[in-house]
Amino acid sequence: MLEVRHLHLAFDDLVLADDISFQLEAGLTHVIIGPNGTGKSTLLKTLFGDLQPKQGEVLFAGEPLNRKHLEQWRKRFGYMPQDIRLDVGLSVLEVVLLGQLDALSLKLGDSLLEEALQSLDQIGLLHLANRDVRTLSGGQCQMVLFAQALMRQPEILMLDEPVSALDLHFQQVMLDHLDTNTKRNGWVSIMILHDLNLAAQYADNLLVLKNGKLVAQGAPKDILTPELVYDVYGVKAEVLTDSAGIPFIRTQRAGHEATLTLA
Ligand SMILES: Nc1ncnc2c1ncn2[C@@H]1O[C@H](COP(=O)(O)OP(=O)(O)O)[C@@H](O)[C@H]1O
Ligand SMILES: [Mg+2]
């Protein structure tokens, strides 16, 4: 379990976390949503040890994050930051292999190579293995970085807006893959999303951040309401339920307030 206790984060007088506490259980996908600029990415950086909180603690399996042992702490993480540009002269396969940098020695073992090729194959990117990463599209880059994060076999997987450039097919490939691996391997998976429908579909636990506060947390079906959407985003929306009992959100276009007729 990854735990945050009484976290206080601020840049000068901009407060991004005001006494926030939560526990993220292993084997579940935890999705963070909230308005632009509310501190979601900053929170992930803090969990990774990139930023020092003003107050509060981060713990994994009861062990506190200690900045003296940052390297040890980070070994547990697969972390895909937001808007990464791959500006190095490496192939897709090489970038995926970097996920296992700790295990790479002067001689690359067959098993690592096999694993990297398999992970590319599983997400439908094997045909790109020898491509220079500088020639990839934004969506292809996101998929490659996802494969790299998986290669780490992390205990904690953090994905910051991982689907922002993906088409419908690759959104599903990535998120299904994440879901299956999280449950099978008992990872603590944390993902920031803007698409509330994807959040509702894939979050086992949804955390809603706004103005430095955790304003709601729980299963999407229990917390996603029109009131919450309005409070957090200032947007009027209907929250409907699909045949599997999962909420879906339909925003209203100005001047088109008609409600949906469901078949
Ligand atoms: N190093 C920094 N110094 C000062 N302000 C920062 C720094 N990093 C982020 N911010 C500000 O903190 C706020 C939250 O940023 P961020 O965590 O990236 O938001 P989100 O991911 O929720 O969109 C933004 O207003 C941003 O400009
Ligand atoms: Mg962000």
Explain the layout of strands and helices.
Elements: E1 2-11, E2 14-24, E3 28-33, H1 40-48, E4 55-60, E5 63-64, H2 70-74, E6 77-80, H3 92-97, H4 110-122, H5 138-151, E7 156-160, H6 168-185, E8 188-192, H7 196-202, E9 205-210, E10 213-218, H8 220-223, H9 226-233, E11 237-241, E12 247-251
Helix pairs in contact: 4-5
Bound molecules: adenosine-5'-diphosphate (ADP) and magnesium ion.
Adenosine-5'-diphosphate binds next to β2 and α1.
- Per DSSP, what share of the residues sits in E-state strands of 2 or more residues? 25-35%
Counted by DSSP, the helix tally is: 9
Helix content: 25-40%
What distance lies between the first and last C-alpha atoms, to the nearest angstrom? 42 Å
Could you state the CATH homologous superfamily?
P-loop containing nucleotide triphosphate hydrolases
Summarize this structure as a short list of keywords or feature phrases.
263 residues; alpha/beta; Rossmann fold; six-stranded mixed sheet; four-stranded antiparallel sheet; 12 strands; 27% strand; binds adenosine-5'-diphosphate; binds magnesium ion
A few lines on this structure:
Helix content is 32%, strand content 27%. The protein has 9 helices and 12 strands. The chain has helices at residues 40-48, 70-74, 92-97, 110-122, 138-151, 168-185, 196-202, 220-223, 226-233, and strands spanning 2-11, 14-24, 28-33, 55-60, 63-64, 77-80, 156-160, 188-192, 205-210, 213-218, 237-241, 247-251.
